[in-house]
Amino acid sequence: MANYKESGVDVEEGYRAVDKYKEQVKRTVVPGLLTGLGSFNGMFEVPKGIKNPVMVSGTDGVGTKLDVAFQMKKYDTVGIDCVAMSVNDILCSGVQTLFFLDYVACGKLDADVAAELVKGVADGCVDTGCALLGGETAEMPGFYDVGKYDLAGFGVGVGEKKDMITGEDIREGDVLIGLSSTGVHSNGFSLVRKLVPNVNDPFVVNGTDTGKTIGEVLLTPTRIYVKPVMEVLGKYRKAIHGMVHVTGGGFFENIPRMYPKAKEGKKQLISVIKRASWDIPPVFGELIRRGADFDNVYNTFNMGIGFVLAVSAKEADAVLEMFNANAHKYHKDYCPDMKAYKIGRVEYAKGEVNSQKDAVLFED
């Protein structure tokens, strides 16, 4: 007679993994959490004082960046990417994520590896200020290759309806403020993996060996923008008219998403981006050197800007100053300090907007 373990599922290893998860989950406890890990569901209390609550959710995965982690045998940072991809999306409406749930899937569970993945998720939740409410670990022998894991998750936040940032207030003359990325973040890795067949190659910048491998640089976690942006919103919410998380598709696919569609007979708002207005991380130069098509990199990668805000011209300098003055408060050992830049402006299109590249113009 066959049993579950002989079919490839080790429930004892699953129990061991959950025990390890519990230690990480303890670090993410925040007010409003009503249940602990191990319940059939997770409960979270809606914050008091919200008169007309709106639920805001976001979901995403780490994607093929995981393959770099497998090759490097470094599993403790991709969980931060998993959280970041969702909570930064939720942030675009001006809402902080309250809780997050993750999903780990594999062919054969190794509790130590799974615990490292969840440690990263917990780190991301701590950086966000949200609870890790629960999740699922699925062992599926024969479906996933042994040694390979998938990691995804979703978050939920709640905000006051009247305070939602929808893009409807964006107007011509607004200033585009860009917040620096930590590098490639978690998008474009299908191309990155073709360009970087050996993750153990030394990472050389301007002829100087940095002492890191390119794999280490690529595994730098996605920046979580929640705390610095929420702090600015606390003082300048009315001046922030729209926000964008620059993910897959880069500038061209993401920045136009914050603009409302022009009403009949009206012109469409577009972005004018000033080249060389921010520092581009060296990793992008290396990817171009390895063969990334320069004409398309802004349609694939974030190119050093991971989050963009459309800000009233009157308050733009004050917002910029606040971001840069507070950057040290959110320092993390695993990523460089955030910088804010004026990267462009909002204008009305001079003609028809028939493609994404008509909606984002670059000027020198």
Automatic annotation (TrEMBL):
<dbReference type="InterPro" id="IPR016188">
    <property type="entry name" value="PurM-like_N"/>
</dbReference>
<feature type="domain" description="PurM-like C-terminal">
    <location>
        <begin position="171"/>
        <end position="326"/>
    </location>
</feature>
<keyword id="KW-0658">Purine biosynthesis</keyword>
<comment type="pathway">
    <text>Purine metabolism; IMP biosynthesis via de novo pathway; 5-amino-1-(5-phospho-D-ribosyl)imidazole from N(2)-formyl-N(1)-(5-phospho-D-ribosyl)glycinamide: step 2/2.</text>
</comment>
<dbReference type="InterPro" id="IPR010918">
    <property type="entry name" value="PurM-like_C_dom"/>
</dbReference>
<dbReference type="GO" id="GO:0005829">
    <property type="term" value="C:cytosol"/>
</dbReference>
<dbReference type="Pfam" id="PF02769">
    <property type="entry name" value="AIRS_C"/>
</dbReference>
<keyword id="KW-0067">ATP-binding</keyword>
<keyword id="KW-0436">Ligase</keyword>
<dbReference type="GO" id="GO:0004637">
    <property type="term" value="F:phosphoribosylamine-glycine ligase activity"/>
</dbReference>
<dbReference type="InterPro" id="IPR036676">
    <property type="entry name" value="PurM-like_C_sf"/>
</dbReference>
<feature type="domain" description="PurM-like N-terminal">
    <location>
        <begin position="54"/>
        <end position="158"/>
    </location>
</feature>
<dbReference type="Pfam" id="PF00586">
    <property type="entry name" value="AIRS"/>
</dbReference>
<protein>
    <recommendedName>
        <fullName>Phosphoribosylformylglycinamidine cyclo-ligase</fullName>
        <ecNumber>6.3.3.1</ecNumber>
    </recommendedName>
</protein>
<dbReference type="GO" id="GO:0004641">
    <property type="term" value="F:phosphoribosylformylglycinamidine cyclo-ligase activity"/>
</dbReference>
<dbReference type="GO" id="GO:0046084">
    <property type="term" value="P:adenine biosynthetic process"/>
</dbReference>
<dbReference type="GO" id="GO:0005524">
    <property type="term" value="F:ATP binding"/>
</dbReference>
<dbReference type="InterPro" id="IPR004733">
    <property type="entry name" value="PurM_cligase"/>
</dbReference>
<dbReference type="InterPro" id="IPR036921">
    <property type="entry name" value="PurM-like_N_sf"/>
</dbReference>
<comment type="similarity">
    <text>Belongs to the AIR synthase family.</text>
</comment>
<dbReference type="GO" id="GO:0006189">
    <property type="term" value="P:'de novo' IMP biosynthetic process"/>
</dbReference>
<keyword id="KW-0963">Cytoplasm</keyword>
<keyword id="KW-0547">Nucleotide-binding</keyword>
